[in-house]
Hints:
Blueprint: H1 2-19, E1 25-30, E2 36-37, E3 43-50, E4 64-72, E5 78-81, E6 83-88, E7 91-98, H2 100-103, E8 108-117, E9 122-124, E10 137-141, E11 149-156, E12 167-170, E13 182-183, E14 185-188, E15 191-198, E16 205-212, E17 217-218, E18 224-227, E19 235-237, E20 241-242, E21 260-266, E22 301-307
Parallel strand pairs: 2-10, 11-19, 11-20
Antiparallel strand pairs: 1-3, 3-7, 4-5, 4-8, 6-7, 8-9, 8-10, 11-15, 12-13, 12-16, 14-15, 16-17, 16-18, 21-22
Amino acid sequence: MKKVFLLSVLMLALVAGNAAAAIGWGGNVWPNSGAIVVPTGPINVYAQCWKGGVTDAAGQGAGIEAFCDMSADGGAVTTVPMTFQGDVGSNDEYTTQVPQGMLMGASYVEVHVKFHDLTDDTWYTDVKDQANTSPPQRYNVTNVLPVDVNVTFKLCMSGEPTSGAPCVIGSAAVIGAWNTGVSMTSLGGDLYEVVVTFPAGGNPYFEYKFKKDGCNSWEGASNRIVTLPTDGTTSVVLGIDSWNNLPIGCGVGEVLIGERTVCLQVCLDGIDNTGGVCAIGSVPQLSNWALACRPSRSSTSSRRTTAARGRARPTAPSSSTTPRPASRR
């Protein structure tokens, strides 16, 4: 009985110790620093935090509160409490608003989210945004669109298979506010298009990307950023995008009009190398990024390759970033 009692006390102590630990992480502030906002209404600000054994469970984690410092044009700082928004995985998300009155007449506003752990009276203040920018996050205030603007989006799937039409999706309400995208229409082959009207009085700044398979599968490319003109322009045709920023096909990309021989050289002076050197790349002549290639063994290593007529100019592979979750703006 004594051993059982001691074991129970030990387990209670471990649980209490875990709950009393400091907040382990805070971040994912949205909007990201640098976003352009308009003074037609308040700005919703979101942030998340995590504490082991506390925020993992459903509902608001006990003993945690959030605050947001905000100011306009570097003026007086106002601190407001943030409201628990819900669970995002193992994180707790909080939200507040920058009031419209603070935006009116300002050129920018700044916010700084802070999390307070009531169990040990510690603060987590280095709360970065989703682009990993340290606080304070700055939002630039701009004019609204004076007229409706018809924006044309075009997407070349560049050979990427899709089981249904792709869609455009983004931060503006007319393209789904990161929830429901706008389906695109095929122009033949892999080329798709849609025209979306951005209404007068709206924010000229927005971010977007694409989903395929009937608007179900996200691409891995970073958000594309657009700021529409506020000079009365009524129509904007964006440049043709490609799925995951692949080299554009669809008969619209730049192509070579004749064969070109390219000499690639690398100096290995002072570099220990016993296996030779090879060149790889995004075209068949450079093995399509395959690992196996024929090395050159000259003292100043070089390799010649001939690019075929009509092939799109090779580009370096783009880096992939995890798309923002569909549940968040």
